[in-house]
Amino acid sequence: MPQARAPETRADIAAGPTPWPLPLRLIEALGWLALYIVASLGRFGRFLSEAVALVFIPPLKLGRLAGRVYFIGFKSLTIVILTGGFTGMALGLQVFLTLQRVGSEAFVGPAVGIALVRELGPVLTAVFVTGLAGSALTAELGIMRITEQIDALMVMALNPVRYLVVPAILAGLITFPMLTAIFDVAGIYGGYLVAVILLGMSPGTYFGQMQTYADMTDVMVGFWKSLCFGVLVPWVCTYKGFHCGHGAEGVSRATTEAVVLSCVLILVFNYFLGSVLP
Amino acid sequence: MIRIQGLRKSFGRQEVLKGVDLDVATGEIMIVIGRSGGGKSVLLKHLLGLMRPDAGAVLVDGVDITRLRGAALEAVRRRYGVVFQGGALFDSMSVFDNVAFPLREKTKLRPAEIAQRVEQKLEQVGLQEMGSKNPAEISGGMRKRVAIARALVTEPEIVFFDEPTTGLDPILVNTIHHLIRDLHRKFRFTAVMVSHEIPEIFEIADRVAMLHDGVIVETGDAASLQASPNPIVQQFIHGEVEGTHHAA
Asked: Residue B140: what pLDDT?
């Protein structure tokens, strides 16, 4: 790689090192960007690996874990039931009207059930919980960072990852599958409300066909996805809070980044998990 | 004893510490003074092991803490108590729980013993009635006192104070300083305080060090510092606008 020309005269020295030509500067900038991305990914991965290691190294902070389960799980319950119900209703309506054109409205039940259990349940639950609890988690940790509360934990010889990150990740693992299951049930009954009660379909057909075509494999796909998102969302949100910038602007930027990155990763992982899982 | 040797730290192109050398004897109150933004808090963060220097060492009883990680660094920090500039109280906990937190997490004391020690510490800082309050419900001066109680509740050997009186009125400044002096007389901890409360700090300091432009330019007891012929020191302690310092 060519080196910048060494200064030869006093004027050269005063002017500082000769700048690279523009194409080389672009390559240099690209190199810095690549290094920045690799370093960020490294920090991101190391953050999770430390948290995972601390899950298996006692003591586990059960009180904080219970608090996080309440915070992520119980406080998200209303929004999950509400959104699940309306998602199922919209799905039931559209699937019914579409299948009616080809005379196959009997398949509304399995269509709604499989779509919810395999795809919409885990993805939408994760997205809503990110907006509700994930953003709050990032803001909380961000404020703890800028007010030196995380530093205070460190100088007390206490590991802040053990106190703040491990309970959040474990709570995600516990609550996401449960919330997804609740979303699925609310959605299936939302579809039932529209297809059976409003549009006059037989209840036996709705649930009977669902039992025939949807099986345990579909349920397990949704379960593994929700488990994966249960780690992913707290991981991203606590990482962003932990490494937020200065002041209120830093916290607000970290919160936005946490929500956006979580949502993007949920959709990316959903596709790849959907491809890999049976 | 704490010994700082040739400590250097840069952020990007800005060199904040340019080779700091300082000794703090066991049991003394050392106060580091200097202008705001002059690197005092950065120096303190190196002493706490929260930052790693570009060069130099921080020796705590002969152990270089800049090279320690994990459990070894935690072992040194168990000897520390720290009062942060803003208090750094956990806002999700009450005043009582904030002070009790280090005891609950770092000792095997029974709840009754913890309660007794917390109440004793809150009484020493004059806040015995405030245990049930949330940090957001008490004044800035009270928060500083709670932070002092929390830092001292484990009876540490070394206590660090990061501008413990910044933003307080003159009466509260003196109250906090007298409190630190009284607690120091009682518990004989080694104290390192970062402050720019001139001349109040001269009443409690055993020695004062002036940090200027990334280096320690003067060290000595209060009287010798006040009599120093160094124009930088004189300008700072008299708050003169004209002189070696440039207004920010």
From this structure: 86
Looking at residue A4, its pLDDT comes to: 46
Helices A121-129 & A166-192 angle (0-180, nearest 10): 130
The predicted-structure confidence for B111-129, as pLDDT tens digits, reads as follows 999 999 999 999 988 888 8
DSSP sequence for B122-152 = HHHTT-TT-TTS-GGGS-HHHHHHHHHHHHH
> Do the Cβ atoms of B216 and B20 come closer than 8 Å?
yes
Residues A136 and A272 in one domain: yes
Q: Same domain, yes or no, for A52 and A141?
A: no
Shortest CA gap A118–chain B (Å): 38
Same domain for A136 and A82, yes or no, is: yes
User: By a Cβ cutoff of 8 Å, what residues of chain B touch chain A?
Assistant: 48-50, 74-75, 77-78, 80, 82, 84-86, 88-91, 101-102, 105-106, 160
Spatial strand order in the sheet of B207-212: B80-83, B158-162, B190-194, B29-33, B207-212, B215-220
| Residue B230 domain flag | no
Q: Is residue B107 part of a domain?
A: yes
Q: What is the pLDDT of residues B82-121, one digit of tens each?
A: 999 888 999 989 999 999 999 999 899 999 999 999 999 9
- CB A55, CB A153: distance < 8 Å: no
Name which residue leads in pLDDT, B79 or B248.
Answer: B79
Complex ipTM value = 0.88
Query: CB distance A151–B75 less than 8 Å?
Result: no
Asked if residue A41 and residue A175 are part of one domain, the reply reads no
Nearest CA in chain B to A151: B50
- In the predicted model, residues of chain A with pLDDT beneath 50 are 1-7
Chain segment B2-43, per-residue pLDDT in tens: 999 999 999 988 999 999 999 999 999 999 998 888 889 899
Residue B206 sits at the vertex; the CA angle it makes with B202 and B208, to the nearest 5 degrees, is 60
For residue B129, give how far its alpha carbon lies from the nearest alpha carbon of chain A (Å).
Answer: 24
Structural domains of chain B, count: 1
Please give the pLDDT value at position A13: 54
- Would you say residue B95 lies in a domain? yes
A231: nearest Cα among A164, A173, A161, A165: A173
pTM of the predicted protein model: 0.85
φ, ψ dihedrals at A84, nearest 5°: -60, -45
Q: Is the dihedral of CA A17, A22, A28, A33 positive or negative?
A: positive
For tokens 């004059």, what's the residue? B126
